[in-house]
Design a protein that fits this description.
Rossmann fold; alpha/beta; 15 helices; 382 residues
């Protein structure tokens, strides 16, 4: 089978994590692969004899239309048998059977649209609505759509009325994730040394609105007060500074909230950490916390569980599906309940140990090999 993978939209976050793991897994099966990729990512995938890369540098604003016009011809010329569209948008007239990977819940999230209106982000609201229309059309254009969780697949079925939407969990490879033993940047290490002796909460994400940083920040003074002034540090893999994060999201409100609540010394802005070195952070933290109000899978949850971190997560159906009984949950906009869950873990070694053990067991369920097996089994029907 010759598979063409359109990964032009995989530039950060879960999309990038996906192709980093799936391309090597598919290549190991001896399949012939042709991958449309941005030039800056090509170096990550050298050394595969059965993988040909088509490098395209297309401005984001023109990517959808460029793909519709140029990619069908590229797919015909390379004589592919199957198209795997990995970036939420499908080709309207694919020359071969097409599997669409849909993993952007912003298009279907009422909370996100309300949040944008509250922030007066009307341009982003309109842009998301327009992209949502194309994403919805894409599900119709594709032969089948794959979502990374059953909770999100159900959301897509409700949104589109479609029935050709299936769930295949994303995977995790603990060996590959921890393979890089090179140390963290010296500046990051210095910051982490200053946090020694503190209760260290970890949140892995660029700054954006839907990860709900503000609720987490609001919980910090509550946690500090309930722990009798015990030192608490929130480790962020981003910086709350203009221009320091991808996307159109403005950090001003979050940065101001940190100052207004007097928690500047509690927030450690580590900046972007290379994916291959994230395992160092998980091992140094005491627990993983996510207040996100919308998700499709949430890779950091599996990474945290695999590294034995107790998990505290907002009560999204996706989070509950991925973590099961290996996490404590709270209403997604309740800083009060978030603080209660954190204090519960800090105050009880038994609770922390149970969550850590359950998490290690739960994380073993997720496998990139299993994901690709299910994907290829589905492809055989087309």
């Amino acid at each position: 089978m010759h598979v063409f993978i359109n990964s032009l939209a995989a530039s950060a976050g879960g999309g990038l994590t996906y192709i980093r793991n799936v391309i090597p897994e598919l290549a190991a099966r001896g399949l012939q692969l042709t991958v449309a990729i941005t030039p800056d990512l090509h170096n990550e995938f050298r050394g595969y004899d059965n993988v040909e890369f088509v490098e395209l540098r297309i401005p984001v604003a023109r990517r959808f239309w460029h793909e519709q016009v140029s990619l069908p011809g590229v797919i015909r010329r390379c004589r592919a048998d199957l198209l795997l569209s990995a970036g939420n948008f499908a080709l309207r007239k694919s020359p071969v059977p097409q599997i669409l990977l849909s993993r952007n819940s912003l298009y279907t999230s009422p909370d996100f649209y309300r949040d944008l209106v509250k922030r007066h982000e009307y341009r982003t609201w309109l842009d998301t609505r327009l992209r949502g229309l194309l994403a919805r059309k894409s599900i119709v254009w594709a032969d089948i759509t794959v979502a990374p969780s059953e909770a999100f697949a159900a959301e897509l079925r409700k949104w589109t009325g479609g029935t050709r939407i299936l769930a295949i969990h994303h995977g995790f490879d603990p060996e590959a994730f921890t393979r890089d033993v090179s140390p963290l940047d010296a500046e990051v290490q210095q910051k982490l040394q200053a946090a020694e002796g503190s209760v260290k909460l970890l949140f892995v994400s660029h700054y954006n609105y839907y990860r709900n940083f503000e609720t987490l920040i609001q919980a910090l003074p509550l946690i500090r007060g309930r722990l009798n002034r015990r030192k608490v540090r929130l480790l962020l893999t981003c910086k709350l500074a203009a221009g320091a994060n991808p996307g159109p999201y403005r950090v001003d409100a979050a940065a101001q909230l940190v100052r207004d609540l007097g928690v500047s010394e509690m927030v450690m802005e580590l900046g972007t950490i290379p994916y291959s070195q994230l395992h160092h952070l998980y091992r140094l933290a005491d627990m993983y916390v996510t207040p996100a109000y919308t998700e499709t899978f949430a890779h950091p949850l599996v990474e945290a569980m695999s590294n034995g971190l107790p998990v505290i997560a907002s009560d999204l159906p996706v989070h509950q599906e991925i973590c099961g009984d290996a996490a404590l949950y709270f209403p997604r906009f309740s800083a009060e309940e978030l603080a209660t869950r954190v204090v519960e873990v800090v105050s009880s070694r038994d609770v922390a140990a149970q969550l850590a053990q359950r998490g290690r067991t739960r994380s073993a369920v997720f496998s990139w090999k299993k994901h690709v097996d299910e994907l290829l089994a589905m492809a055989q029907n087309y």
